[in-house]
Amino acid sequence: MIRRQVRIHGRVQGVFFRDACQTEANRAGVVGWVRNAPDGTVEAVFEGEPGAVQAMCNWCRSGPEQADVEHIEVTEEEPQGDSSFDVR
C-alpha cells in the first residue's frame, strides 16, 4: 500500500472535480479524500495498491471534462489505513 497527496492547479473548483474524483477513486479501489482548498486548488489523498494510486494521480492531470488542469503536485505520505474515499 502507498499513499500520495495531490494538489491540482487550474480551473478545478466549481466543475464537479470532487464528485468525479470520488467516482474514479471508488472505481479504482483506493481510499482517501478530496477537498477544495481556500487558494482555489483541489487537494486529494489516495491510498491503495501502487497501480491504482498511480492511475488516480494520472486521472488528476486532466480531471473531469469541465476542468482545466494546469499542473499537479504529488507528495509521498505514509499510509494511514483509511477505510473509504470521502469528499470533504
Can you walk me through this structure?
It is a single chain. Helices cover 26% and strands 41% of the residues. It is of the alpha+beta class and 88 residues long. It has a single domain (2-81), classed as Alpha-Beta Plaits (2-Layer Sandwich), CATH 3.30.70. Strands 4-1-3-2-5 form a 5-stranded mixed beta sheet. Strand 2 and strand 3 form a beta hairpin. The longest helix has 12 residues, at 17-28. The model has no long low-confidence stretch (mean pLDDT 97).
Task: List the keywords.
88 residues; alpha+beta; Alpha-Beta Plaits; five-stranded mixed β-sheet; 2 helices; 41% strand
Please identify the top-level CATH class.
Alpha Beta
Termini separation: 23 Å
| Total count of strands | 5
Percent helix range: 25-40%
**Widest sheet: strand order?**
4-1-3-2-5
Mean pLDDT over the full residue set: 97
- What is the subunit arrangement here? single chain
Q: Main sheet?
A: 5 strands, mixed
Query: What is the name of the CATH topology?
Result: Alpha-Beta Plaits
Regions with little confidence, pLDDT below 50 for 5+ residues: none
| Radius of gyration of CA atoms, rounded to a whole number | 12 Å
Per DSSP, the total helix count is 2
Estimated structural class = alpha+beta
Shape: globular
In CATH terms, what is the architecture? 2-Layer Sandwich
Strand content: 35-45%
When the domains are counted, the total is 1
Q: What is the helix/strand order?
A: EHEEHEE
Question: How is the topology of this model organized?
Answer:
Layout: E1 2-11, H1 17-28, E2 31-36, E3 42-48, H2 50-60, E4 68-77, E5 85-87
Parallel strand pairs: 2-5
Antiparallel strand pairs: 1-3, 1-4, 2-3
